[in-house]
């Protein structure tokens, strides 16, 4: 994925709002999410965070929605979306297509965390730009500052 992203002129980083909670649960399956508390019994209507298959289900939904755009004009990793283009106009066109699809499927973005038409950005701990892939120096610089290990855990047994 990093190699596909590197070398582009412009990038748009978008963040989905409330992640899994945007995915409705089929009414027939809602009873499977039932829980009991002091105030009664409740079932989720939308996919909650922490449901065992929620991450995989959410990723499959995103791939199904953007199936024809992934790897060509955009990438999706959970609720992080990255639109890219080799020119301002192509990136803007791809962004327009992506946002229309997003709107058509009633998804919502967290606008405060979105960055549009930037020349570089961090993806999976790597800095991508037109010049290629580079290590995120901020991640490397912190390593010498880490304190040395004081305990070792072998199969659940702590040894000091």
Automatic annotation (TrEMBL):
It comes from the Eukaryota. Keywords: Nucleotidyltransferase, RNA-directed DNA polymerase, Transferase. InterPro entries: DNA/RNA_pol_sf, Rev_trsase/Diguanyl_cyclase, RNA-dir_DNA_polymerase, RT_dom. It holds the Pfam family RVT_1. Transmembrane segments: none annotated. GO terms for molecular function: RNA-directed DNA polymerase activity. The keyword Transferase applies. Residues 1-135 form the Reverse transcriptase domain. PANTHER family: REVERSE TRANSCRIPTASE DOMAIN-CONTAINING PROTEIN, TRANSPOSON TY3-I GAG-POL POLYPROTEIN. This is Reverse transcriptase domain-containing protein. The lineage of its organism: Eukaryota, Viridiplantae, Streptophyta, Embryophyta, Tracheophyta.
């Amino acid at each position: 994925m990093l190699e596909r992203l590197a070398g582009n002129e412009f990038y748009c980083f978008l963040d989905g709002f409330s992640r899994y909670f945007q995915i409705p649960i089929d009414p027939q399956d809602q009873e499977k999410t039932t829980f009991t508390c002091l105030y009664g019994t409740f079932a989720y209507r939308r996919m909650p965070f922490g449901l065992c298959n929620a991450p995989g289900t959410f990723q499959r939904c995103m791939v199904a929605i953007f199936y024809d755009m992934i790897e060509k004009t955009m990438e999706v990793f959970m609720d992080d979306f990255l639109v890219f283009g080799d020119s301002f106009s192509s990136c803007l066109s791809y962004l327009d297509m992506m946002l229309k699809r997003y709107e058509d499927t009633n998804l919502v973005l967290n606008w405060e965390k979105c960055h549009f038409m930037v020349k570089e950005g961090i993806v999976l701990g790597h800095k991508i730009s037109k010049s290629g892939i580079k290590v995120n120096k901020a991640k490397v610089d912190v390593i010498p500052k880490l304190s040395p290990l004081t305990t070792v855990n072998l199969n659940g047994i702590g040894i000091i």
